[in-house]
């Protein structure tokens, strides 16, 4: 380049025009190989006109050259356009160095093929690398081919000098395939290495100068100038280094004895052997050589062959002995005993073969695969302990037909309409066989009498197309079996079945069996209960007959329908999302829509009206007498002079249900005196049933049951306490006296029932001393404020209650009063034991002093 080589893309010619008038691809490539290595920035821009004017493509090379200049190495480009079986195709060749970072630019496919960028982005483009890894990626909008991961040439190609990767760019929608060949150039990224960290030699002290000792070769995975070039030995007075070049160009170092050893003077000699490659910058590796001076043994083992060549079938089992090597030492035992070992070999050889150190048998440690590697070459060393010699082993792997052909579907259409025209592409497939030669050639065919045809495309690609009319009513689906057979002996085959559905046209809407439904459901259903199943039918087939059910938007009151019900879109079953409450609403209406899966979709609606049925789910609620939170019962007072039928109080209750579920009845469940009071069945009125006599217990307890009229009746109960007394002092005396204990030393507990009618009052405590008991009576003297903060009350002392209970004054207060028997000073405490307690509900309240 730079005047020495004229690029193929000159003037305003297209790539095809270039081949017709300038140079053939082979001549262009041959000339490019002889061109000095330079960067893109030195190359002449493509499509450069004779007048020096530049097209837009020249600016790409000018601006991008520095980005893709790898240490002065050339980027080699070969463009070849082919036409195969009517499908457009092309070949590109790029050259890049190894170890480029992921995403590094390789080439502009659109520019180099003269394509339209739109064709690449809209053609269903994908990239495929032959092998196990996807090394490259392509930008669909720019057409840039870039590395998809780091490429290690040594891992990919090993010692092979010419390392190529084959990439296929497939445009599935237009059935075009472009082949790209990328050469991976070696860089000096590997240092020479020795198989062992130390080389141990034993040299007899009577060994004459000029004796040679074979040294293990250093290994360098790089190739060309980057590989091993020469050796260097550290300075010493006994040994020199002689490097020989083998027929294959590899270098072998031998240690030459220049001056005889004297074991008595020095028995061990330490040397450093350095292997140096020819890269820039230079890399090197070293190994320590330890030479031990010995007596006697002066003959090295000799192999009967310098090279052992053997051929092995790739399907030989593990453990098979491939060959046996043998070396002879004319010395007497034990100096004639030879030990065999591998000499500086790669890991792949160690993983594949084993060597018996005593017998020299080389056997298979792993299965061979011709498709992975065609031959193995390595060295074996024979040593008698002092001297050693080497021989080369060359093992050729013979290919056998051991791989079935493979059918790879690149793209597939599972459904086609029955009115599809002839030639409709159903699938794009590729056949492959890992065997080589005739064993890897594959033929592909279909069974007869099918309305389909396999059309050969570029390379090993086939297109499966329609070759006859399709009729869904006759055949609704096809199972197309594609068979691939190789040319091996015996031939191997593989089949792949493609399932193809023939689709219908959508011309029938879903139909409900009724246009409206009336559904009755009970309240209190569990969430998730199925309450109705909407069913519609569609006479179409497949997706056109697949019905989806939805509920049209609506509200129940201010709440969306979606909060109460849901529908299974596939089965049409309607579920409750929460329980319905008859007391909240009694009916609602929805619209169910059935829509098929055709395009355009067809639909129909049905009206569903739900009626909520009442259940007896509410127990009667007792409004009066109310039940205090502290568990005490209400207190009513009945004069002892009451006549039969006297209205003492009334139990009032309601039920939230409706109809007969809300009909309430009252009955006396239990009482202190069964004949003293009656309860009205429908009114709840508590009246005296007879005259009150003196022997009747002063405090009467009545349990009143309130029951509704449901199928399973629900009920509530309340306890009413009635005190029989004509006057307040009499009531106070009667209810406080009976519970006093007989123990003189014990505290006296009494209950005070106070009828409160004013907001301020004064009380007197009168001490009564019948025998050993103390009793206090509390009388109202003056109105006063209510207070509950007195730590100590003294007998006969007036006291007022401060406004801590001003808000809801009780009609009757009951509290406990304790008297200290020793001091005679009564104390009235609250729950914390620090203040008096006067509190209660309208009926009564009971508080216990601590």
Automatic annotation (TrEMBL):
It holds the Pfam family Cadherin_2. CDD domains: Cadherin_repeat. Residues 48-57 have a biased composition (Polar residues). Residues 88-194, 195-303, 304-407, 415-512, 513-622, 639-740 form the Cadherin domain. It comes from the Eukaryota. It is found in: Cell membrane. Its main location: membrane. It is a single-pass type I membrane protein. Keywords: Calcium, Cell adhesion, Cell membrane, Glycoprotein, Membrane, Repeat, Signal, Transmembrane, Transmembrane helix. PROSITE patterns: CADHERIN_1, CADHERIN_2. Residues 30-57 are annotated as: Disordered. One of its GO terms (molecular function) is calcium ion binding. GO terms for cellular component: plasma membrane. InterPro entries: Cadherin-like_dom (IPR002126), Cadherin-like_sf (IPR015919), Cadherin_CS (IPR020894), Cadherin_N (IPR013164), Protocadherin/Cadherin-CA (IPR050174). GO terms for biological process: homophilic cell adhesion via plasma membrane adhesion molecules. PANTHER family: CADHERIN-87A, PROTOCADHERIN GAMMA-A3. Potential calcium-dependent cell-adhesion protein. May be involved in the establishment and maintenance of specific neuronal connections in the brain. This is Cadherin domain-containing protein. It comes from Pleurodeles waltl.
């Amino acid at each position: 380049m730079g005047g020495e080589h004229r690029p193929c893309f000159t003037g305003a010619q297209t790539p095809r025009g270039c081949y017709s008038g300038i140079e053939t691809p082979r001549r262009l490539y041959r000339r490019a190989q002889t061109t000095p290595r330079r960067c893109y920035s030195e190359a002449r821009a493509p499509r450069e006109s004779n007048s020096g004017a530049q097209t837009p493509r020249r600016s790409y090379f000018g601006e991008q050259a520095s980005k893709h200049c790898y240490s002065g190495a050339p980027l080699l480009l070969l463009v070849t356009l082919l036409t195969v079986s009517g499908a457009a195709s092309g070949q590109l060749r790029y050259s890049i160095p190894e170890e480029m970072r992921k995403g590094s630019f390789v080439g502009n496919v659109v520019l180099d093929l003269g394509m339209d960028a739109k064709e690449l982005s809209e053609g269903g483009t994908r990239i495929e690398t032959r092998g196990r890894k996807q090394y490259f990626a392509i930008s669909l909008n720019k057409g840039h081919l870039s590395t998809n991961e780091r490429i290690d040439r040594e891992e990919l190609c090993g010692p092979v000098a010419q390392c190529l990767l084959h990439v296929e760019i497939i445009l599935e929608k237009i059935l075009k395939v472009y082949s790209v060949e990328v050469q991976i150039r070696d860089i000096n990224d590997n240092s020479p290495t020795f198989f062992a960290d130390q080389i141990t030699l034993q040299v007899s002290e009577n060994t004459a100068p000029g004796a040679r000792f074979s040294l293990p070769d250093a290994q360098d995975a790089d190739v060309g100038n980057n590989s091993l070039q020469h050796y260097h030995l550290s300075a010493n007075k006994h040994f020199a280094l002689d490097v020989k070049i083998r027929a294959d160009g590899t270098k072998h170092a031998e240690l030459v004895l220049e001056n005889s050893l004297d074991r008595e003077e020095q028995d061990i000699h330490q040397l450093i052997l350095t292997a140096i490659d020819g890269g820039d910058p230079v890399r090197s590796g070293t190994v320590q050589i330890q030479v031990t001076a010995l007596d006697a043994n002066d003959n090295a083992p000799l192999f009967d062959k310098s090279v052992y060549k053997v051929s092995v079938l790739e399907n030989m089992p593990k453990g098979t002995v491939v060959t046996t090597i043998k070396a002879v030492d004319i010395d007497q035992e034990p100096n004639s005993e030879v030990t065999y070992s591998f000499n500086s070999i790669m890991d792949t050889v160690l993983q594949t073969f084993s060597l018996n150190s005593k017998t020299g048998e080389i056997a298979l440690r792993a299965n061979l695969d011709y498709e992975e590697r065609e031959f193995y070459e390595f060295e074996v060393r024979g040593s008698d302990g002092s001297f050693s010699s080497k021989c080369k082993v060359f093992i050729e792997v013979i290919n056998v037909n051991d791989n079935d052909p493979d059918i790879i579907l690149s793209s597939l259409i599972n459904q086609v309409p029955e009115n599809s025209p002839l030639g409709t592409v159903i699938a794009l497939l590729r056949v492959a066989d890992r065997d080589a030669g005739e064993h890897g050639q594959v033929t592909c065919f279909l069974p007869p009498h099918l309305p389909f045809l396999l059309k050969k495309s570029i390379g090993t690609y086939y297109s499966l197309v329609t070759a006859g009319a399709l009729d869904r009513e006759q055949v609704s689906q096809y199972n197309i079996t594609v068979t691939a057979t190789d040319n091996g002996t015996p031939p191997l085959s593989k089949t792949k079945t493609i399932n193809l559905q023939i689709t219908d046209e959508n011309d029938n809407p879903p139909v409900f069996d009724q246009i409206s439904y009336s559904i009755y459901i009970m309240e209190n259903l569990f969430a998730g209960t199925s309450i109705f199943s909407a069913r519609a039918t569609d006479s179409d087939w497949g997706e056109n007959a697949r019905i989806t059910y939805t509920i049209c938007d609506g509200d129940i009151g201010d709440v969306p329908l979606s909060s109460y019900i849901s529908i299974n879109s596939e089965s049409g079953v309607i579920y409750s999302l929460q329980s319905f409450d008859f007391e909240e609403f009694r009916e609602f209406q929805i619209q169910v829509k059935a829509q098929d899966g055709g395009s355009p979709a067809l639909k129909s609606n049905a009206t569903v009206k739900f009626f909520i049925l009442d259940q007896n789910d509410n127990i009667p609620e007792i409004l009066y007498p109310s039940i205090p939170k502290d568990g005490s019962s209400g207190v009513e007072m009945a004069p002892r002079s009451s006549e039969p039928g006297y209205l003492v109080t009334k139990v009032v209750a309601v039920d939230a249900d409706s109809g007969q579920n809300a009909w309430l009845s009252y009955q006396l469940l239990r009482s202190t005196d069964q004949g003293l009071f009656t309860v009205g069945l429908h009114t709840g009125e508590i009246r005296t049933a007879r005259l009150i006599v003196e022997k009747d217990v002063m405090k009467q307890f009545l349990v009143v049951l309130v029951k509704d009229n449901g199928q399973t009746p629900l009920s509530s109960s309340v306890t009413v306490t009635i005190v029989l007394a004509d006057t307040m002092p009499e009531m106070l005396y009667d209810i406080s006296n009976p519970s006093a204990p007989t123990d003189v030393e014990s505290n006296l507990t009494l209950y005070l029932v106070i009828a409160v009618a004013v907001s301020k009052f004064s009380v007197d405590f009168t001490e009564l001393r019948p025998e050993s008991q103390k009793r206090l009576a509390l009388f109202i003297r003056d109105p006063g404020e209510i207070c509950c903060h007195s730590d100590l009350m003294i007998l006969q002392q007036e006291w007022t209650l401060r406004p801590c209970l001003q808000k809801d004054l009780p009609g009757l207060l009951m509290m406990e009063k304790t008297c200290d028997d020793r001091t005679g000073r009564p104390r009235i405490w609250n729950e914390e034991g620090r203040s008096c307690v006067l509190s209660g509900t309208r009926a009564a309240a009971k508080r216990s002093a601590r």
